[in-house]
Amino acid sequence: MNAYLTVKVLHILSSVLLVGTGFGSAFYLYFVNRTRSVAAIAAVSKLVVRADWWFTTPAVLFQPLSGLWLMHTAGWSWSTPWIAATLSLYAIAGICWLPVVWMQIEMTRMARAAHEAGDDVLPKRYWRFAKLWERLGYPAFIAMVAIYFLMVFKPV
User: Fold this and answer.
1) Mean pLDDT of the chain
2) Nearest to 38 by CA among 102, 137, 117, 101
3) What is the pLDDT of residue 39?
4) What is the rounded CA–CA span in Å between residue 156 and residue 150?
5) Contact yes or no for 83/77 (Cβ under 8 A)
6) How many helices (H) and strands (E) are present in the chain, helices listed first?
């Protein structure tokens, strides 16, 4: 079996897992927030955090490792424009993602505490975080879609 092709397939699958889990988590948390149901938000936000730990985080770590190995093995230079752009976009997505992870954990704690206390309203801090969480998600998602484009077309 060819090691390069094996790593390439794993790189592609982990990118799908990364973007798919991110998009799915964003979809569910975005729409459950619109219900304003504390019980539903507590349940969904807990699963969003779990999905980030189980799926997104390993993929986030594997992507640059496998990508750099593929780049080196294929003989691509760091100065290749599409590679430099891809790495920059990945950094932008990461800069957006790290505070989002922290906010999701905090939002989950607030929702769980409100639910356990029998409150039917979440604190204002939750909604401030939800708004920032959403705003950070857009550039991260756009960056990842642009990376797909660059990886497939490899423009010069």
Assistant:
1) 96
2) 117
3) 98
4) 10
5) yes
6) 5, 0
